[in-house]
Amino acid sequence: MLLKVIDLHVWFRKKREIIRAVNGVSFSLSSNESLGLVGESGSGKTITALAIMRLIPAPGEIVKGEIWFDDQNLLTLSPNEMQHLRGKKIGMIFQDPMTALNPVFTIGEQISEVYRYHFGCSAKEARERSIEMLKKVGIPGAESRFDVYPHQLSGGMRQRVMIAMALAAHPKLLIADEPTTALDVTIQAQVLELMLNLKKEMNMSILFISHDLAVVAQIAQKIAVMYAGKIVEMAIAEEIFKNPMHPYTQALLEAIPRIENISFNRRHLKSIAGEGWGLVTGCAFAPRCNKKLSICPRQFPPYKNISPTHKVACWLYA
């Protein structure tokens, strides 16, 4: 097992209030496997990824849990040990490449830093390897693009630069946080295809974070559905789409736009009523659920194994 997250809790303390952004998350990821972490904005997906990278911003803190990567508990590593692991063994693509890339350095300088820091390459060797990486992610005229600044590239090209930086050291795990959100459909498809090709070529695992199940379907072998800091359903991708069990997963799938649902007399899209965060106790989705039982607001359900590769936390099945 390459990555194993066990009972992870991440809290943000604000005066007298505690926000449980991640509230008991557990999942695992094998070598050369892809897992999609899906949910609405604010469900805790990005905080889970930042916890794995040990990059939780203040006033957040990991209050409980274990994160095992390559037989090491990341929560026991020193800041210096973690710094050497980031980029070299775990790469991350952040959501917005315009803010993730440093605007005052050329893209070549930013990619070269990976080779200089982790491998001690000379400036010349780092440049050569960076240009080779830019070519690998499909950036035309890589030699000339090496010396341009982020603002001189399109959104799709900036995202490819982010992928090049994340994969420069050939990490075992790539965490991709909404990597296609700001891209048009054509560029989005190209980026997803690129990631799948590089995954196969580099024999790496991918943790792919998104709010869009339609996008996740193209890249993930397993899918974990998150709601209000908890995973409410997890299965191989085929089972999630063919047999969704949790009412929240069902609602997410119904909200995907489909051409057959569009007509001159019916133009509206389905949505999930209510707001994203619910109860602290019980099932947080209960206030928005049209199938809730009397126990739902009072107690969070145990996980039920629907099959060897499919589990759900819902009182309808417990």
Write the layout of secondary structure elements.
Layout lengths: L2 E12 L2 E13 L4 E5 L6 H8 L7 E10 L2 E2 L5 H7 L4 E4 L3 H4 L6 H13 L3 H14 L5 H4 L9 H13 L5 E5 L7 H18 L2 E6 L2 H4 L5 E6 L2 E7 H6 L4 H8 L48 E5 L2 E4 L5
Parallel strand pairs: 3-8, 3-9, 6-7, 7-8
Antiparallel strand pairs: 1-2, 1-4, 4-5, 9-10, 10-12, 11-12
Annotation keywords:
single chain; 318 residues; alpha/beta; 8-stranded mixed beta sheet; 4-stranded antiparallel beta sheet; 11 helices
Count of helical stretches: 11
Mean pLDDT: 89
- End-to-end separation in angstroms reads 28 Å
The secondary-structure element order is EEEHEEHEHHHHHEHEHEEHHEE
CA-based gyration radius: 21 Å
Structural class determined from secondary elements: alpha/beta
Strand content: 15-25%
Strand order of the largest sheet: 6-7-8-3-9-10-12-11
- Main sheet attributes: strand count, strand direction, barrel closure: 8 strands, mixed
Helix content percent band: 25-40%
Care to describe what's here?
With 318 residues, the chain is of the alpha/beta class. The chain has a domain of 78 residues. It is built from 11 helices and 12 strands. The strands form 2 sheets. Strands 6-7-8-3-9-10-12-11 form an 8-stranded mixed β-sheet, with helices on both faces. The chain has a 4-stranded antiparallel β-sheet with strand order 2-1-4-5. Strand 4 and strand 5 form a beta hairpin. Helix 4 crosses helix 5, helix 5 packs across helix 7 and helix 7 runs parallel beside helix 8. The chain is globular, with a radius of gyration of 21 Å. The two termini are 28 Å apart. The mean pLDDT is 89.
